[in-house]
Specification:
The chain has helices at 5-12, 16-29, 40-56, 74-79, 81-95, 160-170, 173-182, 234-241; strands spanning 32-34, 62-65, 105-111, 130-137, 147-150, 189-191, 198-201, 207-210, 219-226. With 242 residues, it is of the alpha+beta class. The structure holds 2-oxoglutaric acid and fe (ii) ion. The site of 2-oxoglutaric acid has 9 residues, from β3, β8 and β9.
Length: 242
């Protein structure tokens, strides 16, 4: 079977009404799930890639960027015109603005070993408007590393300093402690992700994180982040340089 056969069919059939429907669902429930986005073949190739990467990393957690994904299939997905178009279509439908060029801030996060805790329960807002999460491997037993979210708690800030202020509110011990306590309460939305499904949410607007997994287990997720509202910000550039 050809690569990304399921994804191709789903993306080809997606009408503008469907895209509006996805936007509506993310606004209302915080997250949209496209089931079986990957075929078993696509998943197997990615799983093999994860396992090789973890062996290379000494069986500890590792995050790989776009330049390190050759052979995984994820770099091919990121270049697929129909996949890229999904993001610009969602952007325009949601923000009623022309969409910027689609280039992804892409990562493959592989969590395992003693380092799992360092990469779990770190609540944050992403720097990008749209986040797509593609679980490749999720433990079948023990702690599954559920995805936790409090959806759409802020609007897109067109001011970079306002964005930094929001981030500062979340990124401190007191708030992280509060959110961790809330993690087990019903007020926190929880998604037990299924490998091969594609999950879409407003990463910039949503407080989110993942729960840990057991040391001996593997949790691997591919992330596609799109559209930094502050890409052209003079303040951002100035601060980076400082
Ligand atoms: O792996 C996950 O479930 C979420 C990761 C995430 O939010 C991120 O890398 O920005
Ligand atoms: Fe994130």
């Amino acid at each position: 079977m050809s690569q990304f056969s399921n994804a191709n069919v789903w993306l080809s059939d997606l009408s503008d009404m469907d895209v509006e429907g996805i936007v509506g669902q993310i606004e209302k429930t915080g997250i949209f799930c496209a089931q079986d986005f990957l075929s078993q073949e696509d998943l197997d190739r990615m799983k093999t890639f994860v396992s090789t990467s973890l062996t290379r990393a000494g069986k500890e957690s590792v995050s790989l960027g776009s330049s390190q994904l050759a052979g995984s299939g994820l770099e091919e997905l990121a270049e697929m015109p129909k996949f890229k178009a999904l993001f610009s279509r969602l952007y325009t439908a949601a923000l009623k603005r022309p969409a910027p060029d689609v280039t992804f801030y892409q990562i493959l996060r592989c969590l395992t070993g003693k380092t799992v805790a360092n990469h779990s329960l770190m609540f944050h807002y992403d720097s990008y408007v749209i986040t797509a999460l593609l679980p490749v491997e999720i433990p079948a037993v023990g702690k599954r590393g559920d995805f936790l979210l409090i959806p759409n708690t802020r609007t897109i800030r067109w001011s970079y300093l306002r964005n930094l202020a929001d981030k500062a509110v979340i990124d401190n011990r007191l708030m992280q402690g509060y959110l961790r306590k809330r993690a087990s309460s019903p007020s926190m939305q929880r998604v037990s992700m299924v490998p091969g499904n594609l999950y879409l949410f407003w990463g910039y607007r949503t407080i989110h994180t993942n729960e840990p997994v057991d040391e001996g287990a593997v949790r691997a997720t591919a992330l596609f982040h799109y559209a930094d509202p502050h890409a052209g910000s003079f303040v951002k550039r100035s601060l980076r340089r400082a």
